[in-house]
Amino acid sequence: MRVTLSGAGTAQRMGRGHRAVSRVADVVVEAWADGREECLAEVVQALVESCARAGDAVPDACVMFALAEETDEALLTAVLDEVIRQIEANGRVTVDVSVDERTGATRGQVEVRLATVPVEAVERVATAPAALAVHGVRFGCEDGVWRARLHLAL
């Protein structure tokens, strides 16, 4: 079992962070942040860190897409699906992510930007999920802090 942590302390003492616990058949990912978009970014970082170490890899490509999912859990699942698709289909690993809520005519949509590097530019530390098989998804605001928790099958 391998645990990847970002930040120090607990969710109550910090603005944002994440952890991933790799087990034989799955990865348990948890993240927390003051806002929904920041929590989404933390989940992506936890997923990537569970299977790769980017080190000083500098992004050389960017993938942008917009989503308008019905629920926060569906939004989280859609973002992670794209991160995994980038690894599988394009051989690209996300090393930075930004998520922004759109306003105006596109209100209700979220714009996601994944900064990526070739898979060869990172150190693989575990098997990446081959497809998005998620269960136990929880994503929402509790006591003023956005929290996410899910299990990803390997």
From TrEMBL:
Pfam families in the cross-refs: Archease
Archease domain mapped to chain residues: 22-150
SUPFAM superfamilies: MTH1598-like
Keywords attached to this entry: Calcium, Metal-binding, tRNA processing
Keyword Calcium set for record: yes
Molecular function (Gene Ontology), one example: metal ion binding
Family annotation (InterPro entries): Archease_dom (IPR023572), Archease_dom_sf (IPR036820)
Record GO biological process: tRNA processing
Superkingdom in the source lineage: Bacteria
Gene3D superfamilies per record: Archease domain
Protein family according to the UniProt entry: Belongs to the archease family.
Protein name, as recorded: Protein archease
Lineage summary: Bacteria, Bacillati, Actinomycetota, Actinomycetes, Streptosporangiales
